[in-house]
């Protein structure tokens, strides 16, 4: 295995307010240097909350966090002040789902990238603008010199996402977090952005965590997949293991509902029911109410974590009853 870039141990995140939301429950995960991992699951499964916890972007007054998060050996939950500022955008950067909301509408594209470079690298404005131009070229934006002077609203959705990627990578982070960066794009542009991210990941050698609800996207971009459900990782393995030999009933349900493999006129498979409310911490398998294989033992306590292979794990009593995908 490659050296560990990221180690998350027993992460728990609760949101306090009129009611308590148990968003993440005892999540453990690791990522090696230069690896690409997809966090796969339905909306509300905790994928985006996990990324925000990694960047310390959760509202501190309403959030309770337990566990340990280390990036390059540094305990990021203890960072504050300048150390936290250097960490965000320097060691770890994020590409958001909607760049129109993430980019500042009152500054040009070039000014925003240059400001980030000056803050983290301590270079002059002219040097920072050279970096900004170089990054726009690397993300393959047409007429990059002219685009430096554009405002975000003057660009198409696909071009704004390329700017977001350029901004995130301008300081050469060791870890890139991508939160559904292609969801708002049409199919053709989506493929272009995925290919670009894969190319830049290889060029820069950074680790990547890619959040998606689309298993086709996860297969295209990642070496490993971690499947999330109700704030927990229910299955993890290499992309090939997850696709060829899914062990958790939820993973198999996601594969069966995949639009990419359905013939015209064929009825889509669906997972019955809905994800659970997260107002109480789970005391048994969260997927049991939707699972055709569930028995009384599944509702009696939390499922054991089975490890059929190195870095392969499944949180399910029925892991050995899963039928491999055709």
Describe the protein's architecture and organization.
Helix content is 33%, strand content 24%. The chain has 326 residues and is α/β, with parallel strands linked by helices. It has a domain at 98-173. The strands form 2 sheets. Strands 6-7-8-3-9-10-12-11 form an 8-stranded mixed beta sheet, with helices on both faces. A hairpin with a 2-residue loop joins strand 4 and strand 5 (74-75). The mean pLDDT is 92.
Largest sheet: 8 strands, mixed
Classify the helix fraction into a percent range.
Answer: 25-40%
Task: Report the β-strand fraction as a percent range.
Answer: 15-25%
> How many beta-strand elements?
12
- Low-confidence residue ranges: none
Question: Terminal Cα separation, in Å?
Answer: 29 Å
Name the overall outline: globular
Class by SSE composition: alpha/beta
Mean pLDDT: 92
Oligomer: single chain
Number of helices: 11
Order of helices and strands: EEEHEEHEHHHHHEHEHEEHHEE
Subcellular location: Cell inner membrane
Family: Belongs to the ABC transporter superfamily.
InterPro entries: AAA+_ATPase, ABC_Ni/Peptide_Import, ABC_transporter-like_ATP-bd, ABC_transporter-like_CS, Oligopep_ABC_C, P-loop_NTPase
GO molecular function, one term: ATP binding
Tags for this model:
11 helices; globular; about 325 residues; membrane; ATP-binding; alpha/beta
SSE blueprint and pairings:
Layout: E1 4-15, E2 21-32, E3 36-40, H1 47-54, E4 63-71, E5 74-75, H2 81-91, E6 92-95, H3 99-102, H4 109-121, H5 125-138, H6 144-147, H7 157-169, E7 175-179, H8 187-204, E8 207-212, H9 215-221, E9 224-229, E10 232-238, H10 239-244, H11 249-256, E11 305-309, E12 312-315
Parallel strand pairs: 3-8, 3-9, 6-7, 7-8
Antiparallel strand pairs: 1-2, 1-4, 4-5, 9-10, 10-12, 11-12
């Amino acid at each position: 295995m490659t050296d560990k870039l990221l180690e998350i141990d027993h992460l728990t995140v609760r949101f306090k307010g009129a009611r308590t939301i148990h968003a993440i429950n005892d999540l453990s995960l690791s990522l090696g240097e230069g690896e690409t991992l997809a966090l796969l699951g339905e909306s509300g499964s905790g994928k985006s909350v996990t990324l925000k916890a990694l960047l310390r972007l959760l509202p501190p007054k309403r959030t309770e966090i337990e566990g340990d998060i280390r990036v390059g050996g540094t305990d990021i939950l203890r960072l504050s002040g300048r150390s936290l500022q250097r960490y965000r955008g320097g060691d770890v950067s994020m590409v958001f789902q909607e760049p129109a909301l993430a980019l500042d509408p009152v500054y040009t594209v070039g000014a925003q990238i240059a400001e980030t470079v000056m803050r983290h690298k301590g270079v002059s404005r002219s040097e920072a603008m050279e970096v900004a131009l170089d990054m726009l070229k690397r993300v393959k934006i047409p007429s990059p010199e002219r685009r430096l002077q554009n405002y975000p609203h003057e660009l198409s959705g696909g071009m704004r996402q390329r700017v977001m990627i350029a901004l995130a990578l301008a300081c050469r982070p060791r870890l890139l977090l991508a939160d559904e960066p292609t969801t708002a794009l049409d199919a053709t542009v989506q493929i272009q952005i995925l290919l670009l991210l894969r190319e830049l990941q290889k060029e820069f050698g950074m680790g990547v965590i890619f959040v998606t609800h689309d298993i086709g996207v996860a297969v295209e971009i990642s070496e490993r997949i971690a499947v999330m459900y109700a704030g927990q990782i229910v299955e993890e393995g290499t992309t090939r293991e997850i696709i060829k030999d899914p062990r958790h009933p939820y993973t198999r349900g996601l594969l069966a509902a995949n639009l990419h493999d359905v013939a015209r006129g064929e009825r889509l498979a669906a997972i019955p029911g809905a994800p659970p409310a997260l107002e109480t911490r789970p005391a048994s398998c969260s997927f049991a109410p939707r699972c055709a294989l569930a028995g009384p033992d599944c509702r009696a306590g939390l499922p054991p974590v089975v490890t059929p292979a190195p870095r392969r794990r499944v949180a399910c009593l029925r892991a050995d009853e899963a039928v491999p995908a055709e």
